[in-house]
Amino acid sequence: MKKIHNYTISIIGLAIFIASIAIIGLENNTIYGKEPITGKESFVLMEDDPIIITKEKEVKKTIKVVITAYSSCPFETDDTPFITANGSEVQEGIVANNLLPFGTEIRIPELYGNKVFVVQDRMHSRKGYYHVDIWFPSKEQAIQFGAVKTYIEVLKS
After folding, report:
1. What digits encode the pLDDT tens for the residues 82-119?
2. What are the residue ranges spanned by the domains of the chain?
3. Topology of domain 59-155, CATH
4. Distance between CA atoms of 67 and 104, rounded to whole angstroms?
5. pLDDT tens digits along 28-59
6. Is the dihedral of CA 77, 70, 119, 63 positive or negative?
7. What is the DSSP annotation of 22-61?
């Protein structure tokens, strides 16, 4: 009985803490909408989402790359076009790369500011290591993206 009581108090305390920080954020012009999150720690109230707490990660290294785009078309993928090389389903924010380990978080600041992408897919070996492919939901969006030479920031985990 005592363990359950302590657990309940901990949950209530956590809820009060989160609520108080959200109220402070409202008083300090918390960012609304789906804008990139900036600053060391931010509380962001999204229109349809719960409160998201993020901490900006440090950059481990910067790498010059060619960035292209792909979609889940059968001729661009293997026989499982909606499953990445690491076994997850495709979704917004996934990139393919042959150099970085699965789960590596990167940013493409010249194109997407502070948006974080995650390496969860691989490319054909002929693409080499310094090529990043961003997943898009449609072939048309991927074609419209084209190809860009820029750099990526590999984030510390």
Report:
1. 899 999 999 999 999 999 999 999 999 999 999 999 99
2. 2-55, 59-155
3. Barwin-like endoglucanases (2.40.40)
4. 16
5. 333 333 334 444 444 444 444 444 444 678 99
6. positive
7. HHHHHHTT-EESSPPP-SSEEEEE-SSS--EEEEPPPEEE
